[in-house]
Amino acid sequence: MEMFSNVFTKCRRIINQFPIDASTTKTSTDSSPKSTVPSKNEPAVASNRTQQSRLYRQRSHGGSWRRKSLIEDAKFETVTNAEFERVEGRRLSQGELCISEEVETTNGDGKSSPEEGLDTVRNFTLIVSLQEKMSSLADVIKMFDLSKVAIEHVESRASQTPESKYEILLHCVGIKGNLLHCADVLRQNSRVQNLTIISDSSTEKKDIWFPRHITDLDKCTHLITKFEPELDTDHPGFCDKVYRARRKMIADLAFDYRDDTPIPRIEYLEEEIETWRHVYRALKKLYPTHACKEHRRVFEMLENENVYSENKVPQLEDVSNFLKRKTGFQLRPVAGLLSARDFLASLAFRVFQCTQYVRHSSKPDHSPEPDCIHELLGHVPMLADPDFAEFSQEIGLSSLGSSDEDIEKFATLYWFTVEFGLVKEDGEIRAYGAGALSSYGELMHSLSDVPQRKEFNAATTSVQEYSDYDLQPIYFVAESFEDMKEKMRIYASNIKRPCEFRYDAFTQSLVELTSKDALQSMAKNIKGQMACLQRALSHIEMRTTALCVS
């Protein structure tokens, strides 16, 4: 087979695997998995919430959206790896060898492999021949989504036969029965001329890898989505070829980025600046009454230092240097939404993976995926606060080496805290989550009487079903950042991991606390800090005594 021209890589689409409808989500106060059906005792409340949520949606977004989140990726990894363990355990118990199985398939009217093992997770490689333009690829991708088969790699080329216009190479993983059903449906699609399954192999169990040094983040490029406008017919930029080409150009810069090099500067277009200005002005009016004091303080600082302004989209390099001075965090350009494991691991190094592209101008008030407006207005001010920066890093450290199930729970905790968290402040409730702080509609909604609000508890929050459709139906409220951080530490202490890690900021590497030398080094470090603290207290006490005497 001839080499395909690479159009996009690592395209992970896990949108419809665990759909939750915001209008029907009901939560309770226990820690058990929550039902998605409204309580029969509260039909009026549920109906009222549904109507008000739809009203907010129309006012804020002008349509229905679905967010792309870390949680869906984590859920998929959990299901896939759990299935692998089950299949391998069954084979070993039956004394069978774990050999690669081959599938014999032909196209259209041909026969497929025997129908045994249809419930097992497999790796597949397919070639799909399209009758029409490349826009038909979106329909193919959507069919895989509906079948809950994850696409890991996509390539395309002009067709080598006159019967079709394009040939698409797909590498994917999913339950065999789902894939075969998907293939049968696509073969009947008038836009698909042919579909061939060229390989079918068992999944291989992989050791959990995570970065050990900050330069290892160059390898953390497992994207859930890359060129989203290319694949999602509902995306506002799907029919805008100019916007799609620009997104690709900016994404390529992120893919080529390497640690310890300046972040590429983007010359933003006037249309993009106007989108930034529109969102900036609207949110700035809300911040005094809706944002937490930490966000307000840093946002004012960013403006005073001329890093932020409504007249320009900030450059990541300038913002990253600002963060380094405040908390030691830094930004790193990313082409799209990373996998949950890679994204959380980056936080352990005080690195925040940040997009550089701007949402489509036709929908400036909301983006179904992370963009630089979301990152810069929502995340950056909070990462410049020392307490919140420490909280974010500790989530990352706790995720290292964790199981797929625990990664899913950490991703859920991240969603309900860093993305959509609320905190008590002087007897009132304020927003600190970036998803709310970067969306006018979400910020208004979060402090309204429409959504449910619950006290933050890490164990309960980690298993809470979430909604990625439009506005959130439920928020968790922290007593304070310190209280939230302490609860997270208690939760993380019960997570099974290979060992405990600490981050050495001098070497920018992780230290495994598994040896006597490592523990002694950490103890000496703590001892030195305690001595410094005692001297500082003595100086303060002496000055206080001198003032009292005088």
Can you give a write-up of this model?
- A hairpin with a 2-residue loop joins strand 8 and strand 9.
- Helix content is 44%, strand content 14%.
- It is an alpha/beta fold.
- It has helices spanning 43-60, 70-93, 136-146, 176-187, 228-231, 241-256, 270-290, 293-304, 316-326, 340-347, 372-383, 386-399, 404-419, 434-437, 440-446, 458-461, 481-493, 516-549; strands at residues 5-9, 121-130, 150-158, 166-175, 192-202, 330-333, 351-354, 422-425, 428-431, 452-455, 474-478, 501-504, 509-512.
- Among the domains are: 25-51, no CATH class; 515-549.
- The model is unreliable at 1-67 and 91-114 (pLDDT under 50).
- It has a five-stranded antiparallel sheet.
- Helix 1 (43-60) runs antiparallel to helix 15, helix 2 (70-93) runs antiparallel to helix 13 and helix 10 (340-347) crosses helix 12 (386-399).
- It is built from 18 helices and 13 strands.
- The chain is globular, with a radius of gyration of 25 Å.
Mean pLDDT: 79
| Low-pLDDT residue intervals, each spanning 5 or more residues | 1-67, 91-114
Strand-residue fraction? 5-15%
Q: What kind of sheet is the major sheet?
A: 5 strands, antiparallel
Helix content: 40-55%
- Number of alpha- plus pi-helical segments: 18
User: What is the assembly state of the chains in this entry?
Assistant: single chain
> What Rg, in angstroms, do the CA atoms define?
25 Å
Q: What's the arrangement of strands in the largest beta sheet?
A: 1-3-4-2-5
Distance between the termini: 90 Å
Using the alpha-carbon principal axes, give the shape: globular
What structural class do the secondary elements suggest? Answer: alpha/beta
For the secondary structure, the number of strands is: 13
